[in-house]
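Weekly sync, protein design subgroup
Attendees: M.S., D.O., the rotation student, P.L. (late)

Item 1: inverse folding check
M.S. brought a backbone from last month's batch and wanted to see whether the design step gives back something sensible before we order anything. D.O. pointed out we never logged the input encoding, so this time it goes straight into the notes. Structure tokens as presented (669 positions):
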């Protein structure tokens, strides 16, 4: 960088779009008159164009600064698309100098009495929100948005952080008519592009010869005193101009059982591989997961925090004194942290306050809590280490980078494998993590700096077992008792859902969601005993659960547990089916036939096993006297199913729905 301290430079660039030209601020009558998207009539909005450019500026004081300019024009078709009139940009405030974000030329265009009306964004539509000590968010809310509006805005990001260029997405949940991203990179920087998604943009690369004029003062003597006179010099160098562009990109439509749809959109990111300034040694920044993990461990708000123990020693000594086995100590310390230090809702693998302050204040971010837990377990003689995680909202960590992670949990290594812990959630258990953590792979970091990949996805089936007995009277009224037992993730999610909820409100919702039944004698079993299966028991009556037509009664045997529609509706699916965890749903049902009726027909038994034993469905029936017995089981044995199985899975669910909706038919004897 010393070389560049001797001059000032100005980049002169021109804008050119390879496929089409767009003039900022010139919204057309045709764009405003358009009632729906020509290729996706269901679209609530569409990006008419989005054009971005990354360039590099230089100043004597701050060196190189990366400048990202983006202009976006969006058409709003329906009220459901109003959210597209809001935009937020996250930026780092921990760098020196800080990153900065500026919005400009933001306006909403409407067609009023055949004329184009422009409403500019005012200052009261711009918001700046500090997220934590590292990040802030700049937001805008566009004015006067209606069905048919066109909005347009430009924003600029200035950043001294050169390790990564701004990410660019060519695809989103609405159609994109045109997307273009340019990078203008001086030859001193080498960036490695990382592409993801199923639609690849076109790429064009050009080399441009650039020249820089700068003032140079020669240093004289051993003390390098700068001579008072200066000369004007010129430096020529190559600049690589890369253009990525895509036309008519369809919306990536979300469906059931998806992790984070952003994992699968067509996009490009760039990682800094090397820097080579004139007359300076070559610096290699190519990285791998091991070096990323080590760099994070050495970070002042990470590894050093694990070595702080003085603030908790007395409490933990007293806690584990009467305990003998490692399992008892782990359980006691884990419960202690969950009960005494509450999560403040902020993510981060680093400590926000520091473990001492978080312990004192009894609250902290993810890093504060789980690094504290790691330190306490180590103090108790447990082999515990932090595991870096990218949450579902952050996306899958595909490429080595410190920003690939946004979370940390704890791993205990023992001969039987890893035990994973996350103390941010009261109802979590060993190897039962909050679902935000279940994002493919994490990376465990040991004290010696070594690291290894950790599979975060659950292996054990979470059960939902229902035992139900009910009678049907000649009017079709159903009266019965139900007992339900939940384990592992099913139990944790249920506890989370009902935590703090008024029981009367819960029962009202339960009644309405299940055919307007009336519930009595409701109780829960083991609601607070996390190590035990959670149960709920109640009696119910329902008048809308069967059909009586003349002298016949038609019963849907699973009543309110019947699947109503196929969760898979698309013709094809390009991204995996993500269930989060494997599960088994089981139903044991006894139906009492009313006096004077006999069974005319029951659904035929079926036993379906999915390809490669990914799961299966059983539906068995037995008629014994005036009782009908059903045994129904649906299992998904893996947490993630490849999209290659989509057609098979879609057909599998369709057969389940058809079978579950077959009626038991009773007729008068």
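Designed sequence read out in the meeting:
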């Amino acid at each position: 960088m010393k070389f560049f301290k001797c001059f000032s430079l100005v980049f002169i660039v021109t804008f050119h779009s390879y496929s089409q030209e767009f003039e900022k601020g010139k919204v057309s009558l045709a764009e405003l008159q358009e009632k729906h998207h020509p290729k996706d009539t269901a679209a609530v909005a569409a990006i008419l164009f989005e054009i971005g450019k990354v360039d590099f500026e230089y100043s004597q004081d701050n060196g190189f600064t990366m400048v990202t300019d983006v202009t976006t024009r969006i058409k709003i078709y329906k009220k459901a698309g109003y959210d597209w009139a809001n935009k937020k940009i996250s930026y780092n405030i921990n760098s020196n100098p800080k990153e900065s974000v500026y919005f400009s030329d933001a306006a909403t265009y409407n067609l009023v009495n055949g004329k184009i009306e422009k409403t500019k964004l005012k200052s009261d539509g711009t918001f700046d929100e500090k997220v934590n000590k590292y990040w802030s968010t700049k937001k805008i809310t566009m004015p006067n948005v209606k069905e048919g509006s066109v909005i347009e805005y430009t924003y600029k990001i200035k950043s001294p952080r050169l390790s990564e260029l701004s990410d660019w997405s060519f695809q989103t949940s609405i159609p994109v008519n045109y997307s273009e991203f340019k990078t203008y990179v001086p030859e001193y920087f080498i960036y490695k592009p990382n592409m993801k998604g199923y639609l690849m943009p076109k790429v064009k690369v050009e080399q441009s010869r650039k020249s820089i004029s700068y003032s140079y003062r020669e240093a004289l003597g051993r003390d390098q005193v700068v001579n008072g006179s200066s000369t004007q010099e010129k430096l020529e160098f190559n600049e690589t101009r890369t253009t990525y562009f895509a036309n008519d990109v369809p919306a990536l439509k979300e469906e059931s059982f998806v992790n984070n749809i952003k994992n699968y959109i067509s996009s490009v990111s760039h990682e800094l591989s090397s820097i080579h300034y004139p007359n300076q040694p070559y610096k290699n920044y190519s990285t791998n997961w091991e070096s990323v993990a080590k760099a994070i461990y050495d970070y002042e708000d990470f590894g050093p925090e694990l070595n702080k123990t003085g603030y908790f020693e007395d409490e933990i000594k007293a806690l584990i004194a009467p305990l003998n086995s490692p399992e008892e100590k782990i359980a006691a310390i884990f419960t202690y942290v969950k009960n005494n230090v509450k999560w403040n809702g902020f993510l981060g693998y680093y400590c926000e306050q520091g473990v001492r302050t978080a312990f004192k204040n009894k609250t902290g971010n993810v890093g504060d809590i789980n690094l504290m837990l790691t330190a306490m377990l180590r103090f108790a003689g447990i082999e515990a280490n932090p595991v870096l995680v990218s949450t579902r909202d952050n996306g899958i960590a595909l490429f080595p980078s410190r920003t690939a992670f946004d979370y940390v949990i704890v791993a205990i290594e023992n001969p039987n494998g890893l035990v994973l812990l996350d103390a941010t959630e009261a109802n979590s258990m060993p190897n039962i993590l909050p679902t935000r953590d279940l994002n493919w792979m994490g990376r465990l970091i040991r004290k010696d700096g070594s690291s290894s990949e950790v599979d975060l996805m659950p292996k054990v089936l979470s059960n939902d077992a229902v035992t139900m007995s009910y009678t049907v009277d000649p009017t079709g009224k159903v009266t019965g008792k139900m007992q339900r037992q939940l384990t592992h993730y099913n139990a944790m999610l249920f506890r989370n859902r009902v935590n703090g909820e008024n029981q009367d409100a819960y029962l009202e919702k339960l009644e309405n969601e299940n055919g307007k039944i009336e519930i009595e004698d409701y109780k829960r079993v083991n609601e607070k005993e996390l190590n035990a299966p959670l149960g709920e028991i109640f009696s119910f009556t329902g008048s809308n659960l069967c059909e009586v037509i003349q002298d016949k009664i038609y019963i849907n045997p699973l009543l309110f547990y019947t699947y109503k529609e196929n969760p898979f509706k698309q013709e094809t699916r390009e991204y995996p089916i993500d269930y989060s965890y494997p599960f088994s749903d089981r139903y044991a049902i006894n139906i009492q036939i009313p006096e004077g009726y006999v069974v005319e027909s029951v659904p035929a038994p079926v036993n379906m096993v999915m390809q490669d034993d990914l799961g299966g469905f059983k539906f068995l029936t037995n008629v014994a006297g005036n009782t009908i017995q059903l045994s129904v089981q649906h299992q998904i044995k893996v947490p993630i199913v490849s999209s290659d199985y989509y057609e098979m899975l879609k057909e599998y669910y369709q057969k389940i729905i058809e079978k579950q909706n077959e009626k038991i038919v009773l007729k008068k004897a």
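Discussion: The chain is about 15% helix and 40% strand. The longest strand covers residues 231-249.
Action: P.L. to compare against the previous round before Friday.
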